[in-house]
Amino acid sequence: MSTGTHRRADQERLDELHASLAKEFEVHTARLTELTADTGDPGQAHTQSALIAATRQSLEQIAGALRRIADGSYGACERCRGDIPAERLGILPHARYCVPCQQKQNG
Q: Over the stretch 84-105, which tens digit does the pLDDT of each residue have?
């Protein structure tokens, strides 16, 4: 595979990932809108609060991945600047760190 073909394949993969993450962002935004609507059931307040927090965190992670795709830093560890393995990004497309740096981050 030539370098140009390889770059096109990488760009196509990033474009597909961007589209997928953008759709996921829309879904989570709609879910957050539903969750923040008043249900009138005080017994569900704790559960609803936890779901809202989890949805907001997902939105932040997706937005961060979309920003990194846009600025060209997607796939680079924010700590060591090394490459994040494609396998990790396949599982966690919003990953900001390689595994060793994530372990250090978690302490």
A: 999 999 999 999 999 999 999 8
